[in-house]
Design goal:
The complex is a heterodimer of chains A (about 240) and B (about 350). Chain A is mainly alpha-helical and about 240 residues long. In chain A, about 65% of the residues lie in helices and about 0% in strands. The relative contact order of chain A is 0.16.
C-alpha cells in the first residue's frame, strides 16, 4: 500500500487537495490567533512545518516497534520533543518573535494536524514518504497561514512585511511597505473576527477553483454522440 | 416573498415584504426629524449615502447570483437596513465609515448568509458593531445637541455638513462640534450626586427629562414605533419586554441617585439607541424569536444585556451588542417556546422527535 502512493500525490495532497487548514480544518487555533501579520504567520508556519516533518520521520521509523496500545502517547511524546526543540531554537535565534507568538509555540503540540498526520500517514508509510508528507502538509498549512497573515496585515493595518527583522535579522529592517498612508487601521480585521472572515473567504475561493476544475473535467469527459437530436423544444426549461 | 403572511382568519390582504418595509421607512421619519433638528444635517446625509451604497451592493449581489435585480430591490429591505444604520451612526461621520458599514451589512451580514430571510443577525447592527470596534474615534464623535451651542454659534449648515462628511478642506472638522452623550457623561461621573449632575451639566439642565436633544430623538422613535404597532407590523411583546426589563434593571441599580448610580429608568429609556433598538431593531422578523412567548424572553434579555453593557462595559451604547448576542440565542429560544397547536394538549420542543 505504502509504495503505491506516489510522491506527486503526496505533494498535491499536502498543498491542495487535502490541505490541513482549508480542507481538513485542522489547527485552526493558531491559524486564527496569530495570523495578524505576515511575520507572525511565517514564524508559526515554519515552526509547525519543522515539527510536522520531524515527528513524521520519527513516527515512521518506530512504526513497527510500537504497539497499538501505547501508540498515541508515544506520538505525543515525539511531537512534544520536536516542539520543545523548536521552542528553544526560536528562543535562541528569534527571541522577540518568540515572545510575540507566546503560548502558541508550545501549543503546536496540540495541533491536531500534526497528530493526525502521524496517525493517518506516518504510522503506515516508509520514512521517505512520511518525511515528504510532513513537509508538504506543513508547507500547505504554512502557505495558508501566510496568505491569511498577508491579507489581514494589508486590510487591517495597511502594511505588508512589517517587523520582518524579527525573523530575518537586520537585513529585513526596511522591508515594510506602507500601503494606505499612516493613519490607516481597520481593527476588526486584526481582531479574531477578521481571521474567521478571511479564512472563510479563502475556503470559499478554494471551493470555487475546485468547482471550476471539476466542471472543466466533466465537460471534457462528456461523450458527444453523433447525430444526437434535441427532443423537447416546447415548454419552459429552467 | 411575504415575510409576515397572515393565514386563515380572513385577512383582507397579506402584507407584502415591500409594504412592510415601506411602513418601517415611514415610521423612522419622526426620529429622523428630531435627529436633524437637534444634531444637524448629518443623519440625513448618512441615510442618503447609506441608502445609495446599500442599493448598489444589493443590485451587485443579485446580479452576481443571477437573480432578478429589480424584483429584489423592490422589497426595500436593503433600504431599511441602510436607513437604520444611518440613523444609528453618529451624524457627521466620515463618508468612508458609512460606506464600509453599509457594504459590510449588506454583503457579509446579509448576502453571505443567503440574503433576506436567512441572515441570523440583524445586518444593520452587524455593520454598526464592525464600525464601532474598528473605528472607535469616529464612532464616538457625536455632535453636540442644539441647546448646548453658545449664543451666536450655530451647527454646520447643509453644505458645510457635506464638506465635513467628505473631508473637504475649508471648514472645521467634526471635533469642533462634538460633545459627550448623556450615557458618557453618566459613566464618567464619579463625584456628583445625580441631582447635582442634572443641575450642573448643561446636557441635563437644559433638558426636560433625560438629556438635551436625546430625549426628543427617542420620543420620535417611540412615536414611529407606536405607529408600526398600530399598523400591526409587529406585536408588542418584544419592545415592551425590552423596555420593561431595562427600566426594572435601572430602577434596581438607581441607588437613590448617589454618585455611583447608573442612571434613572427614565434616563435609560430616553437616551442612546433605546427606542430605535426597541421598535426598529429587535422587531426584525428574520433575526428575532418567532413566537409571542419567545419574543417576550428575547426582548427581556436584550433589556438586561443593554443595562449590563451600558453600566459595566466599555462602549458608549449597548443596543447593538445586546441585539447581536440575543440573535445568537433566538433559535434556542424558539426551540423551547413552540406555541401549543390548537387541539393539542402540550406543546413540544422544536427538536423533539415525533412519536
Amino acid at each position: 500500500m505504502a509504495d503505491e502512493t506516489s510522491y506527486r500525490d503526496i505533494t498535491r495532497n499536502g498543498l491542495w487537495t487535502n490541505n490541513a487548514a482549508l480542507v481538513q480544518l485542522l489547527g485552526l487555533c493558531p491559524l486564527l490567533a496569530v495570523t495578524g501579520s505576515v511575520v507572525n504567520a511565517l514564524g508559526l508556519g515554519l515552526a509547525t512545518m519543522l515539527v510536522l516533518t520531524g515527528s513524521n520521520i520519527v513516527v515512521s521509523m518506530i512504526r513497527h516497534r510500537v504497539s497499538e496500545a501505547v501508540k498515541i502517547p508515544a506520538f505525543v511524546m515525539i511531537i512534544a520533543t520536536f516542539t520543545t526543540c523548536t521552542e528553544l531554537l526560536m528562543q535562541a535565534f528569534t527571541y522577540e518573535l518568540y515572545v510575540i507568538l507566546g503560548i502558541f509555540i508550545p501549543l503546536i503540540v496540540t495541533n491536531c494536524a500534526i497528530l493526525g498526520r502521524a496517525e493517518a500517514f506516518a504510522s503506515k508509510n516508509p520514512v521517505g514518504a512520511s518525511a515528504l508528507d510532513g513537509l508538504m502538509m506543513g508547507a500547505g498549512f504554512g502557505l495558508v497561514l501566510l496568505a491569511i497573515g498577508a491579507i489581514r496585515e494589508i486590510l487591517g493595518s495597511g502594511t505588508l512585511f512589517a517587523n520582518m527583522h524579527l525573523l530575518f535579522g537586520p537585513v529585513a529592517e526596511n522591508w515594510a511597505l506602507q500601503l494606505f498612508g499612516n493613519g490607516y487601521g481597520f481593527l476588526v480585521i486584526i481582531l479574531p473576527p477578521g481571521a474567521f472572515l478571511v479564512a472563510g473567504m479563502l475556503i470559499a475561493l478554494k471551493n470555487v477553483i475546485d468547482g471550476r476544475i471539476e466542471r472543466r473535467r466533466m465537460m471534457r469527459q462528456l461523450p458527444v454522440t453523433k447525430g444526437a437530436k434535441r427532443v423537447r423544444t416546447t415548454g419552459a426549461i429552467s | 416573498m411575504a415575510l409576515l403572511k397572515i393565514t386563515s382568519p380572513h385577512a383582507h390582504t397579506a402584507q407584502s415584504t415591500a409594504s412592510v418595509m415601506r411602513l418601517v421607512l415611514l415610521a423612522t421619519i419622526p426620529g429622523l426629524i428630531a435627529l436633524t433638528l437637534f444634531f444637524g444635517w448629518g443623519s440625513l446625509i448618512n441615510i442618503l449615502l447609506a441608502g445609495s451604497v446599500a442599493v448598489f451592493c444589493e443590485a451587485a449581489v443579485m446580479h452576481l447570483r443571477k437573480r432578478p435585480v429589480m424584483f429584489y430591490l423592490g422589497d426595500n429591505s436593503a433600504l431599511v437596513t441602510a436607513v437604520l444604520l444611518g440613523l444609528a451612526l453618529p451624524p457627521l461621520a466620515p463618508w468612508w465609515v458609512v460606506v464600509i458599514g453599509t457594504s459590510f451589512a449588506i454583503l457579509i451580514a446579509k448576502h453571505l448568509y443567503g440574503g433576506l430571510g436567512y441572515n441570523p443577525f440583524n445586518p444593520a447592527m452587524v455593520g454598526y458593531v464592525v464600525l464601532l470596534i474598528s473605528f472607535p474615534v469616529q464612532m464616538t464623535a457625536w455632535p453636540a445637541p442644539l441647546p448646548l451651542y453658545a449664543e451666536g454659534v450655530s451647527p454646520p449648515e447643509f453644505l458645510a455638513s457635506l464638506q465635513i462628511v467628505f473631508g473637504l478642506p475649508g471648514v472645521e472638522t467634526v471635533d469642533a462640534f462634538t460633545a459627550a452623550t448623556p450615557l458618557d457623561t453618566l459613566r464618567q461621573n464619579s463625584g456628583l450626586l445625580i441631582a447635582q449632575l442634572y443641575e450642573q451639566d448643561p446636557l441635563f439642565s437644559l433638558a426636560r427629562w433625560a438629556g438635551a436633544g436625546w430625549e426628543w430623538v427617542n420620543l420620535g422613535f417611540l412615536l414611529g414605533g407606536c405607529f408600526l404597532l398600530y399598523r400591526r407590523v409587529f406585536t408588542w411583546h418584544g419592545p415592551v419586554a425590552m423596555l420593561a426589563s431595562l427600566s426594572l434593571c435601572a430602577a434596581l441599580f438607581y441607588d437613590g441617585g448617589s454618585s455611583a448610580s447608573h442612571g434613572s429608568p427614565l434616563m435609560h429609556l430616553l437616551s442612546g439607541g433605546t427606542m430605535l433598538g426597541a421598535f426598529f431593531i429587535l422587531t426584525d422578523p428574520v433575526s428575532s424569536a418567532t413566537s409571542n412567548r419567545g419574543r417576550l424572553i428575547f426582548g427581556a434579555l436584550i433589556g438586561v444585556l443593554i443595562f449590563i453593557i451600558r453600566s459595566w462595559g466599555s462602549y458608549p451604547d449597548a443596543v447593538a451588542f445586546a441585539v447581536l448576542l440575543m440573535n445568537f440565542a433566538a433559535p434556542l429560544i424558539d426551540n423551547y417556546t413552540l406555541p401549543r397547536t390548537y387541539g393539542h394538549k402540550k406543546s413540544r420542543r422544536a427538536t423533539e422527535k415525533k412519536e
